[in-house]
Write a structure and sequence with these properties.
It is a single chain. This protein starts with a strand and ends with a helix. The strands form 5 sheets. Strands 1, 2, 5, 6, 7, 8 and 19 form a 7-stranded mixed sheet that branches. A 5-stranded parallel sheet has the order 10-17-11-12-13, with helices on one face. A 3-stranded antiparallel sheet has the order 14-15-16, with no helix packed on it. It is elongated, with a radius of gyration of 21 Å. The protein is 22% helix and 29% strand. The protein is of the alpha/beta class. It contains 6 helices and 19 strands. The structure holds flavin-adenine dinucleotide. Residues 7-13, 30-34, 36-38, 40-41, 44, 46, 78-79, 106-109, 111, 129-130, 133, 239, 242, 273-275, 281-284, 286 line the site of flavin-adenine dinucleotide. NAD(+) binds at residues 142-156. This is Alkyl hydroperoxide reductase subunit F. Homodimer. One of its GO terms (cellular component) is protein-containing complex.
Length: 307
């Protein structure tokens, strides 16, 4: 059995594994794919102390750093369930079970997709999901934000300070964001809002986005906008479906509830990163959270009797 088993190989999981291994405890890391969302990212300009890097490069450094320690890395494996008996038992989809005295859950999240033509084709070529990350790439340009909930309106306000023009498209007839955000958005003169708009296609020139097509749900008419970027803000889904049958407490959005040390509702089970209730989902934040969770788990281990 392991002393600490990390589930997930993104920034949170990598940080947790390094912090655990440096305590000299038996550490394992199981992940479907090393690097997590970072592998899907092109330019990264907010990884502090590194002015510019790219996803695959940062992923490779994460993996190399973890490999400097005696961490048992198991990739291409999906966790399927977690139970707690004497130890924490992690069931894998392959049928195997791994036992550990403590666990750090770091299975991350994924952006909900529109599912319209052009979205996949122009991903990272104008289709973006993270305004903190990609906003500055659209300086001086016209962009759309799809989604009029809190994250959509926050993104629109944020982007309006950077880009030339922001158009928000909301499917319903009203915005679902908090009134104070809506008021702020309406007060900005380079931000306009279209409700009853069903996005039907992301348009491009073959290399990058140059527009967007939507249906006006009131009139049924098809319309087009000319723009350079589309920020999809219709939800971030935590990769925690596999925990639904477990005793690990999740909130209504499926995020793992943690305390300030990363502890979940199950003794010995810690969590970090985008899969949790942590308010902002970013690489540096996930790494810090991974370190916190590993130290939290280590504290737990030294206080529990040796199994
Ligand atoms: P993830 O990176 O999501 O990693 C999750 C890990 O868990 C992966 O290894 C995955 O394979 C594994 N996993 C999932 N389910 C299972 C399972 N059932 N069993 C086993 N393993 C599993 N942030 C920034 O700070 N700057 C940026 O510029 C930036 N740009 C971004 C661009 C894009 C396109 C995207 C999608 C995100 C971007 N982000 C950026 C956000 C950042 O990538 C995330 O906040 C960060 O990767 C979260 O780290 P994590 O370790 O919590 O989860």
């Amino acid at each position: 059995p392991y002393d600490l088993l990390v589930v997930g190989g993104g920034p949170a999981g990598a940080a947790a594994a390094i912090y655990a291994a440096r305590k000299g405890i038996r550490t394992g890391l199981v992940a479907e794919r090393f690097g997590g969302q970072v592998m899907d990212t092109v330019g990264i300009e907010n990884f502090i102390s590194v002015p510019y890097t790219e996803g695959p490069k940062l992923s490779a450094s994460l993996e190399q750093h973890v490999k400097e320690y005696g961490v048992d890395i198991i990739t291409d494996q999906r966790a399927a369930n977690l139970t707690r008996k004497q130890m924490v038992e992690l069931e894998l989809q392959s049928g195997a079970t791994l036992s550990s005295r403590s666990v750090v859950l770091a299975t991350g999240a994924r952006w909900r997709q529109l599912g319209v033509p052009g979205e996949e084709k122009y991903r990272t070529k104008g289709v973006a999901y993270c305004p903190h990350c990609d906003g500055p790439f659209f300086k001086g340009k016209h962009v759309a934000v799809i989604g009029g909930g809190n994250s959509g309106i926050e993104a629109a306000i944020d982007l309006a300070g950077i880009v030339k023009q922001v158009t928000v498209l909301e499917f319903a007839d009203t915005l679902r964001a908090d009134e104070v955000l809506v008021r702020k958005a309406r007060s900005m003169n380079n931000l306009d809002i279209i409700t009853n708009a069903q996005t039907t296609e992301v348009l491009g020139d073959g290399n990058k986005v140059n527009g967007l097509a939507y249906t006006d749900r009131e009139t049924g008419k098809s319309k087009q906008l000319e723009l350079a970027g589309v920020f999809v803000q219709i939800g971030l889904v935590p990769n925690t479906e596999w925990l639904r049958e477990s005793e690990v407490e999740l909130n209504r959005m499926g995020e793992i509830l943690i305390d300030e040390r990363g502890a979940t509702s199950v003794p010995g089970v810690y969590a970090a990163g985008d899969a949790t209730t942590v308010p902002y989902k970013q690489i540096v934040i996930s790494m810090g959270a991974g370190a916190t969770a590993a130290l939290g788990a280590f504290d737990y281990l030294i206080r529990s009797s040796v199994a």
